[in-house]
Write a structure and sequence with these properties.
Blueprint: E1 7-8, E2 12-13, E3 17-18, H1 28-44, E4 56-59, E5 63-69, E6 72-77, E7 80-83, E8 89-95, E9 99-109, E10 115-126, H2 129-134, H3 139-156, H4 160-165, H5 167-184, E11 187-198, H6 201-241, H7 244-260, E12 266-271, E13 290-295, E14 303-305
Antiparallel strand pairs: 1-2, 3-6, 4-7, 5-6, 5-8, 9-10, 10-11, 12-13, 13-14
Helix pairs in contact: 3-5
Length: about 300
């Protein structure tokens, strides 16, 4: 017979349930013991009477009370103050809060024959207090052992690189294996997470060498690309500087630099282009006009005489 279903106080679902009393429990002995228990419980409610047990028990929020009568399941009770018969009934509590269980360090051989150590954690909570209480001796121990076995099976079917890159996929596979079995025990698996993967010293050195080789290769590729770009720029510069106008510009810049270099008076002779067009640089002409630039110490700038 269902007493309440839904949210209890908006905080947790109600698990309250009562079983029908069978005829064999209504015998003379059962009735007598129930009557004695009621009397003792009544005396226990008196504040000054400390010799008798109090029939009222507290069930904390986040827990469910499991009441048995003569060792047989009687009812489930929600959080609050619960009255039990101190002679014929007993109450135990099951937590329905999410629990975190450390699966521990597991030595596993991967599919590519690499030995690693994996640490994982399991998140779970009870959804059926009756099955969790009466269906398995220690539900947490059973879940941990089942998770360890599943972890070895799943990780043993993957390569090392796959385990490193796809931890979420491995965790989902482990949860998929454990969840159907946990439901039979009245437990729901919220998540299974791989916390850490530990490698041996030799494997760490091998992975570090591979990573270093990869970084060196990437650096060489970047350097090669930069050299290609520089070569392209130099090619474009040489094409631009190969024109006559560019040669004349460089020629004038060189003359200006020579005039500014050194100390004391100096005279520079330069060939000026003819009126018909630009003169060819690098070739002397007897008829080409020349100009001299003389710089004196007392003057502020060069004087030109033709």
């Amino acid at each position: 017979m269902e007493i309440g279903i839904g949210k209890y106080g908006g905080l947790q679902p109600s698990f309250a349930r009562v079983t029908e009393a069978s005829e064999d429990e209504q015998g003379f002995y059962a009735s007598m013991m129930s009557g004695i228990g009621n009397c003792i419980g009544f005396l226990g409610t008196i504040p000054c009477c400390v010799c008798f047990p109090n029939p009222y028990k507290r069930v904390q929020q986040g827990s469910v009370g499991v009441v048995t009568r003569f060792g047989r399941f009687q009812r489930l009770v929600d959080p609050g103050l619960v009255k039990v018969n101190p002679v014929t009934e007993s109450i135990s509590k099951s937590s329905i809060k999410i629990s975190i269980s450390d699966i521990g360090r597991q030595e596993i051989m991967t599919k590519d024959n690499v030995s690693i150590a994996i640490e994982s954690v399991l998140f779970w909570h009870i959804v059926d207090p009756y099955e969790a209480h009466f269906g398995v001796t220690d539900v947490e121990f059973a879940l941990i052992e089942r998770a360890r076995t599943s972890l070895r099976d799943v990780c043993g079917s993957h390569f090392l690189q796959d385990l490193i890159e796809n931890r979420d996929v491995v965790s989902a596979e482990i949860k998929k294996i454990i969840d159907p079995i946990a439901q039979k025990w009245g437990v729901k698996i919220e998540a299974t997470l791989v916390k850490d993967i530990t490698f041996s010293k030799q494997l760490m050195e091998s992975l570090a060498s591979a990573a270093m080789a990869t970084r060196l290769g990437e650096a060489k590729v970047i350097t090669s690309k930069a050299e290609v770009e520089v070569a392209e720029l130099l090619k474009q510069s040489s094409e631009i500087l190969s024109t006559k106008a560019a040669f004349q510009l460089r020629y004038l810049e060189t003359l200006i630099s020579m005039s500014k270099a050194g100390q004391g008076p100096k005279t520079l002779f330069m060939t000026l282009p003819s009126s018909g067009g630009p003169a060819s640089l690098g070739h002397s002409s007897e008829n080409a006009p020349t100009a001299s630039i003389t710089e004196l110490p007392s003057t502020s700038g060069p004087s030109t005489s033709r």
